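Lecture 7 notes. Example A: sequence first, then its structure tokens.
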Amino acid sequence: MTDSATFQYKEEQHLSKVLGPMHIWALGVGIVLVGEFMGWNFTVAKGGSLGAIIACWVIGILYISLVMINTEIGSVIPEAGGQYAMAKYLLGPLAAFNVGLMLVFEYVMLEAADALVVGAILQSVNPAIQSLPYVILTLLLLTYLNYRGVYATLTLNFFITAIAFVTIFVLLFSTYFYIPSQTILRLSELTNGLPYGWIGVVAALQFGIWFFLGIEGTALAAEECRSTARSLPMGTLIGMVTLLVGATVTWFVCSGLVEAGTLGGSVYPLYEAALSTKMSGVIVVMFIGTILACMASANGCINDASRAWFSMSRDTLIPSAFSAVHPKYKTPYRAILFLLPISMAFGFTGLLDQVITFSILSALLVYLFMAYMMFKFRKMYPMDAIERGYVAPWHPFPAIILLVLTLTTLAGMYFGYWVNLLAGLLFYFLASFWFTLHRYKFVDTKAFLKAGTTRWPRPRGY
């Protein structure tokens, strides 16, 4: 292929630049919000009611640090792939392959968890309902929307995410929490404190991540932003504030309406809390909110997983067939269609906590890479070497906090899911082994290593 033909081929692989801050907010919050409707409550089973809220805010600090790092590096990389693209420029092919694969499984597993919750909540209405057709239909519809274009997809995500977020406050105000003499909240009766002490809090960190998991995926849409330096920081940082408020309200309402033992094992804790109010209007609103949150999350997961897979293919780390861009809709349609059956297969296992655990493990491993990449990014490109759309304050403290809290969370995961932890690490080790021995010889290393030089100045010391 000649140089001109190669250039033309690369140009055809570019995605449409149509997104603004609203869409970035919708992508980040849309993916994460479902974690406030399900999954987070396993923190109660691990660490008790107080352990759950402590885990929520400790993990909130982790994600504030992550978002600052992610936004600084991502704001100067107007390219699909997010953390994968960062690893490509900063760490090289093998690390980039691992980060890309971890991103794909983080979002594919989260999409599978969404499908599981949709099935469970439909069956709660009537046990005779066959949830499988509804799950398949929902995923097919969302896949079709992603196939047709990112602008319409994330515009829809904005509205369904906003509606789902409002339903949390409908539940909050239905409890009359602001009138102590009339409130139906019974925090002192239903919470169980710290039954396992501070070890329980460490164990709870694993599922505390579910309050915020996926907000970092906003960087995966960088290539499709009209202005990456404006849209990415604004949409991501506002999204993080939204999630912190929503997470705290969710814990407060659920812990005051549902007994800790029941709450710790529920598949749909916010809906469970709505049922305990015995208010039919609130129950209907929360049912709708839970379904919409699952749809918004699955919608965002399809977007993010496909962008990571597309980017890996475009850089020849996996077969190039998946790098095709639809000639009309400008979407990575083959990547979108390829990942659908994989997500559905994991969803139909019915093992919600196992699916969540693999998604969380994949995310935590990406966070370790991010902490290291921040140090390397600041060393390679000091403040005066390259223009940034956003500058993370107080460096290197966010990177140190991210590293320490991520390692602590992995240690907490070992207490209850050590088999899953070791199995996940073995999977990524074997994938790295396969890439090194087999796939690497097909990688266009010259183009891969040259990629960053067309956009950035030569790094210091290289």
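Example B, a different protein, same format:
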Amino acid sequence: MRIVLGVAGGIAAYKAAHVLRSFTEAGHDVRVVPTRAALEFVGRATWEALSGHPVSSEVFDDVPEVAHVRLGREADLVVVAPATADLLARAAHGRADDLLAATLLTATCPVLMAPAMHTEMWQHPATRANVATLRERGVHVLDPDSGRLTGADSGPGRLPEPDAIAAAALALVDPEGKPRTQDLAGRTVVVSAGGTREPLDPVRFLGNRSSGKQGVALARTAQARGARVTLVAANLAVRPPAGVRVVAVETTAELQDAVRGAAADADVVVMAAAVADFRPAEGAAHKIKKQADGSAPPLALVQNPDVLAGLVADPPRTDGRPQVVVGFAAETGDAEGDVLAHGRAKARRKGADLLAVNAVGAGVGFGTEHNAVTLLDSGGEVVGTVEGSKDAVSDALWDAVVRVLPL
């Protein structure tokens, strides 16, 4: 795939070298187009060495190549990291005063911009208006992270991590390099991911093996397809997607409150988190000690609320509009039935619009890069199956959601 990596003039320009390396190591052909200011932070030799291509920032360099037109036309993907307040303003107003701005005007492929600037600049009404304009035109503008900025100040405006930028950018195209459909544009979705933990004492908890990879992939894919995404994250083992709103939780009760709160205006809620069915009846105030006689203290459990069933029975959307609810059922077969049989019973019991049933166990489902899912409707009938990477599963699930999503 042919990628143009634009680099604007901010201190975060050094991180773009890691974004470039992520693309080239994945086998993509990358042309770097820095602004004049960017070359004050990272020199031309670095970009040429890492990309294997000559680098220019000027429209009048190599005129016979007509680079200011050709680069944008031929690219499968354009990524700008960092995108400064100045670059966002020039792009929003259609300026063509350097090679990067001209390339943005001629690009017909997906464009992703990862802003980085001081908090005051990011929050200024002019910058917010420029970002809104770009998004209205179909440009994918990530929200910056919050954290340490240049100097001692902290706040929103930090460039997302390079691997998160690369993942968000590559999610905008399908495996063949074609632009991903924007069938979730204008929609608001909530995705839960990870595994809840129920404290036994100050140092121990009841938990599960979920890494959150499938939920994170679902959030990333929804964002790439145009949705506004909130990720309710329960103890993730992987980094959340760049640019999505993240609400961190630990327990099932916290997850339930966070999901219902975020879903007040959501079109779709996807419960991909592995939620603990039980919690200790009482958590110990101090670390539970070993017994002198070698016995184990009794552990009384109580059942947690059924978050998925509650979303169906009592929809959290406040304006009364329809809301699509999707659940996940991680199952193991037993003497009473196989994985699909348990999934069918759960689909009928929970009543979600869709239920994604997958087998879990040692080396299966949890923590892996691969998944195999059977999609059931609320009556337990099979409406689709998919096996492959968790990104592939995500695309298939969103395809199914779009088919039942009200207009």
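Note on Example B: DSSP finds 14 helices and 19 strands in the chain. The mean pLDDT is 92.
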